[in-house]
Write a structure and sequence with these properties.
Shape: elongated
Strand order of the largest sheet: 4-3-2-1-9-8-5
Organism: Saccharothrix variisporea
Number of domains: 2
Number of strands: 9
Protein name: PH domain-containing protein
Structural class: alpha+beta
CATH architecture of the largest domain: Roll
Radius of gyration: 19 Å
Number of helices: 2
Helix content: 25-40%
CATH class of the largest domain: Mainly Beta
Distance between the termini: 68 Å
Pfam families: bPH_11
CATH superfamily of the largest domain: Pleckstrin-homology domain (PH domain)/Phosphotyrosine-binding domain (PTB)
């Protein structure tokens, strides 16, 4: 009987931890949605891709804090994705999540980084696009299947403003 009660107590603590994490994520999303502007929707015809790569969308963070993940909507969800550069912006087509659009006029810079949104890799393991929207600065991270294309992305997007 003691083992059954101990097992139930451990299960209850585990369930409480899961509930706390779920509640924290939703509270973060609520706080951010009150402060952050709505993210832009992709245009109906974004144009032909001049640069394209596949990989994983890691997440979007606020400003210079590489761990302050945006939780609004499904922006905070990691997903397999295709990153496309068109003549009007950067399109992140995510599998199982809504596409993400970064207008080219809002892109500030692009760089490689070691980590973003809780994902840490080796040196230059992530491609990070810094952009702005209504006075807020964001970093969007992407881990490409082929890291050799990062330099092309950095050259195409780097130092725009």
């Amino acid at each position: 009987m003691t083992r059954v009660l101990l097992s139930l107590a451990i299960l209850a603590v585990f369930a409480l931890c899961l509930y706390g994490m779920w509640r924290g994520w939703h509270n973060r999303a609520k706080r951010q949605s009150a402060v952050l502007p709505a993210f832009p929707q992709p245009p109906a015809a974004p144009g032909a891709a001049t640069l394209e790569t596949t990989g994983v969308y890691v997440g979007t963070t606020i400003g210079d804090n590489w761990q302050d993940r945006v939780a609004v909507g499904d922006i905070g969800h990691r997903a397999e994705a295709t990153l496309k550069l068109t003549d009007t912006g950067v399109l992140v087509e995510r599998t199982g999540a809504s596409p993400m659009w970064i207008p080219l006029e809002d892109v500030l810079d692009a760089r490689t980084a070691r980590g973003l949104a809780g994902k840490v890799m080796g040196p230059d393991g992530l491609l990070v696009v810094r952009w702005q929207l209504e006075g807020h600065t964001f970093d969007t991270g992407f881990r490409g299947d082929d890291k050799d294309v990062y330099e092309q992305w950095v050259q195409a997007l780097g130092g725009r403003k």
